[in-house]
């Protein structure tokens, strides 16, 4: 008791088709199929994008504005 048998599931499916109508039900299943297809396509594209990117070159080291004695080395104004 409390579990669904295949007969229960069949009755629920028939009731759903009667309430929604055959056309609406088939359109709904078509939309689900399109969603699955787009999901698979997106997963395939993600695999292509996971290839390592080109290495970014390091920036040059910034020059100090003051030397160790506190004298201004460069003027950024």
Characterization of this structure:
By secondary structure, this protein is mainly alpha-helical. It has a domain at 22-48. The protein is 56% helix and 0% strand. The protein is built from 2 helices and no strands. Helix 1 (6-20) crosses helix 2. It is rod-shaped. The N and C termini lie far apart (83 Å). The mean pLDDT is 79.
Brief digest:
The chain is mainly α. It has helices spanning about 5-20, 20-50. It is rod-shaped and about 90 Å long.
Helix count? Answer: 2
Give the beta-strand count. 0
| Low-pLDDT runs | none
User: Using only CA atoms, what is the Rg?
Assistant: 32 Å
What is the terminal separation in angstroms? Answer: 83 Å
Query: Largest beta sheet, briefly?
Result: none
Percent of sequence in beta strands: under 5%
What's the oligomerization state?
single chain
Which class of secondary structure composition applies to the elements?
A: mainly alpha
Mean pLDDT: 79
User: What is the 3D form?
Assistant: rod-shaped
N-to-C SSE string, H for helix and E for strand? HH
- Indicate the percent of residues in helices: 55-70%
Topology, element by element:
Layout: H1 6-20, H2 22-49
Helix pairs in contact: 1-2
List keywords for this structure.
77 residues; rod-shaped; TatA/B/E; transport; TatA/E; transmembrane helix; translocation
């Amino acid at each position: 008791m409390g579990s669904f048998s295949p007969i229960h599931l069949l009755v629920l499916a028939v009731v759903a088709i009667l309430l929604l109508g055959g056309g609406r039900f088939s359109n709904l299943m078509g939309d689900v199929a399109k969603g699955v297809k787009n999901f698979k396509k997106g997963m395939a594209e993600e695999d292509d994008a996971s290839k390592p990117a080109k290495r970014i070159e390091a920036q040059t080291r910034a020059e100090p504005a003051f030397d160790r004695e506190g004298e201004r080395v460069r003027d950024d104004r």
